[in-house]
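ingest -> validate -> predict -> emit
validate: passed (alphabet ok, no gaps, 540 aa)
predict: started
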Amino acid sequence: MKRKWMNNYFMMCFFIMGLVLSGCTSSANQNASGNQPNTDSETNTKSERQEETTESKKSGGTLRIIIGDDAIKALGYNPEIRSIGDLMVSATALETLGRYNTKGTLTPFLADRWQIDTAAKTITITIKEGIKFSDGTDFNAEAVKWNLEQYRLSQKPNFNETDTQSIEAPDATTVVIKLNTWDIGMMDTILTAVKMASPTAFKEHGKDWAMDNPVGTGPFVMEQFVKGVSVKFKKNENYWQEGMPYLDGVEWKMITDSQTASAAMSAGEADVYYNTSAKVAQDLQANFEVIKFSGFGAFGPAIYPSGGNPDSPWADERVRQALSLAIDREAIVKTLAFGYGTATSQYSSPGLDHYNDEIKPEFNPDKAKQLLADAGYADGFKTQVIFANSPESADLYTAIQSYLGNIGIELELAPVDGAKFREISGAEGSWEGLIGYVFRVAPDTSWDMIRNLASFGTNARSVETYPELDELMRQSRTVPDSETYKTAVLELQQKLFGEKVSAVPLYLGANTTIKAKGVEGDGMTTTFLTDWTPESAKMN
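emit:
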């Protein structure tokens, strides 16, 4: 993937994770104990928008958005919609049953409400009436069932043939999902990962056609897709939300080179530059609005010690604590991320429900030295850090090298190419010393903890794991509601990062989006990194 827009400290690491947000995102931030009515939320305050009837509010025009992904692959067939580019562009035409609000709570969108019965292992979803796909066919329970079945049969790690028994549509507005096992993160996949596309269009034209042609309930209809160049959409004149959309069209421009993209913004050839680097944000901040994002979907670099090797100094949790205390995260954010990052030492970000306020980033080299001495390493030791080679990663780990040198740890930089890094960090790989990898802030926090830090996770090979923490992570999947889940996650944050320091998150990257003045209502980088609200976007 040629994504210079993501060429930052963790570019290759994020690539390795596959950008599989649709397959891996699950969250527990819903009230799993009962109904979810169509209540007040950032994504559903439609009545206010519908009252905006003046010409000044209905701005018209075509919103031109630059995205640094020229490898957009799937726009209209949900199981294949995976990358950030796929997710953002397809959302111009395809919508979901639910959306996140700014706190990461699931709220109804195409769904009117849902009921969860954890004892009976059933999920009952009631969908809104009177909605049609842009091809004129009905959006009903059968359409929802078809879309859910496509995803269920695609062998994703969550919501698949193993964990679900059946999907039924007893009437036009009701969908009943029967589960084999209850997992608190199931609702996120069902409500936000599965984008609703027209079954009729798919059956008439086939999968290959559907991949390039999104036919959904959304506010825009695709006009043209030139791969590697642009995707153009026009207004859906029969959109189900009265008075929307405000724009006449949306055009996505694929420009991988950040200098070329910045020049296009400065020349007035685009209105939005989505998900830029911190350097681009710094260069353009004088003339454009910079939106910084550190919420759900944000990601950043983290250091994973080989604590699972009993012969390694990193097997001692005091040494891992010293590692965390030796690094000035705030200084790194200011100097290397140009102030656009967010320092953190856990799998969350300040202000979010799953952020444990007791585990704030601490820079204390004197305490770090004492911990090393207590562990028997008063004179320090030699180790290495393996990372995917790039100029930005080299800058980051050179800074880490200096910080560790200050407490007596001699750190050797061991950059490797992308293929070698994939081998080391893959399911069969392992490492000695430290590896510079990645972490992200997902609504389903324990899902990522399991992947990276549990003995039964896909990425846990060289980190130290603990049977008691494995059990806590397993239990977090079976809780009945969001409040119980939150309590479990906060405890895991404390034990994994405050006590054991199984890994050392450093900061959340910039994830900035640049906007021309007057662009509003688009919802980009507001609730989730790959969500936006094209129906309410306008240019005043």
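The chain has two domains: 31-40+60-292+511-539, 299-508.
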